[in-house]
Amino acid sequence: MSDRDHRPGLLERWLLALIPLLLRLHALSLRYRVEGLEAVHELLAAGKPVLLASWHGRVLLLPFHLRGLLQTLMISQSRD
């Protein structure tokens, strides 16, 4: 059986459903401050492109903190 024929079992499906929920709960438990978001909204309203940057250790939760702003998330394989 090749990887293309693999169908997730019950445990895999359960974990795949549970992980996003756990990430959401974790994101809700964090305190954070976003600075300069007004400028981002102004640029987007003017139809201009915006590029946001973050440290590798904080990328995982960006979609929760910047809900509605992210269209693409690019991650490198940096070892720093």
Strands, helices and their partners?
Blueprint (H helix, E strand, L loop, with lengths): L9 H20 L7 H9 L16 H4 L15
Major sheet: size, sense and barrel closure? none
Number of strands: 0
How many domain regions? 1
SSE sequence, one letter per element: HHH
Q: Output the number of helix runs.
A: 3
- The stretches of 5 or more residues where confidence is low (pLDDT under 50) are none
Give the overall form. elongated
Report the end-to-end length measured between terminal Cα atoms.
Answer: 38 Å
Task: Give the proportion of residues in helices.
Answer: 40-55%
The structural class is: mainly alpha
What is the rounded Rg? 17 Å
- Strand % is under 5%
Explain this structure to me?
The structure is a single chain. The protein has three helices and no strands. The protein has 80 residues and is mainly alpha-helical. The protein has one domain (3-65).
How do you describe this structure in short?
The protein is mainly α and 80 residues long. It contains 3 helices and no strands.
